[in-house]
Amino acid sequence: MKSRQIRDIAFILHRYIGLVLGLIIAVIGLTGSLLVFKPEIEQTLITQRVGKIITQEQMISLDAVLATAKSVNANRPDLELNKIRLPATPSSPYQVDFFDKDYQLTRLFIHPYTGAVIGINESDSSFERIVLKIHYSLLVRIQV
Question: What residue intervals traverse the membrane (predicted)?
Fold first, then answer.
């Protein structure tokens, strides 16, 4: 091969490899930017999902939240309690995360003043999980 042919092939390879890698880096950068604003975006999505919570005098205790979570868990023994998120604001619900054996997320939204379950997200399609999967693994099948 002549040096001109090698150079032409190198330029073509450089162009297409650069385009693919540039696209991957752009996706990682955009999802990283979304993750910076995750608390604000997630709060808006939760409010749309469960509605506005009117603040009251006294929030329920963590023991009451745990009891509610365990009562739901009694109906679904395949779920394992992972974490309880405290309300970010007085008008936010408690969030209780469960995972099954396949590491699929089930999230309970518990009213901070009455202790009632006001929403259940039984999918792995929350905003946070999708963006994390794209950002860390580009939707390749690994646990995030």
Answer: 12-37
From residue 55, how far is each of 49, 86, 95, 112 by CA, in Å? 17, 15, 17, 9
| Domain of residue 83, CATH code | 3.30.505
Instruction: Find the helix packing angle between 127-137 and 38-50, rounded to 10°.
Output: 150
Number of folded domains that form the chain: 1
pTM: 0.69
Q: Is residue 67 part of a domain?
A: yes
- Rounded Cα distance between 70 and 26, Å, is 42
Q: State pLDDT tens for residues 41-55.
A: 878 888 888 888 888
| The two structure tokens encoding residue 53 | 């919570």
Interatomic CA distance for residues 109 and 89, integer angstroms: 14
> Taking Cα atoms as reference points, which of 24, 41, 40, 13 lies closest to residue 139?
24
